[in-house]
Design goal:
5-stranded parallel sheet, 8 helices, Rossmann fold, 2 domains, 15% strand, 208 residues, alpha/beta
Length: 208
Amino acid sequence: MNFTGRRTELDELRAWCDCDSARSVKLLVGAGGVGKTRLALRIAAEWAAAGGVWRLVAAGKEGNALGAARGVTSGRVLLVVDYAETRADMQALLEATLPDPGPTRVLLLARSLGEWWKRLTEQSSPAVARLLVETDPMRLIPPLANDKSDEALAAEAVPYFAGALRIAPPASVEFELPRARVPVLVLHAAALVAVLRSTTDSEMPLRI
């Protein structure tokens, strides 16, 4: 499925990736389904296309994530940590960046900015604490794209799900969505349900 929207956020993350710092941390905060992981993967793909190496850090592997990346490159490294608020060994990952020559970027994804972030900052070494204090958290909220309605975004996803399932996409789908903007994950779920319902000849509007 093609990436859409988040132009402002992409530009900010690109600037962060290309800054002159040898090492830097960025925190991406947003509710579940708002698109944090998809945005991070988009940036990671661009990082790789520019010749860098990136890793999605697995739980329990924080302490040796940078070392593993350095085993394959001496150049640019991007580490992506999903559900950062649940990780018990974040200090070890961040400490490993201090002696690294860089360029090294650590992109943290979390659903909230609260006690875990305060605790990480307070319990880390002064050098790591400075990295955390210097970061400007980026908050992701709907809408995904200001120039497209939720109905349009859901409709655009329909042919992609149909193609993945190897079935013909429905000729038309009527979505009944709330007035308030909803997370992209909900829109994609609606598109998938619409494709599955099309195999039963249901003509009822799809209501969320």
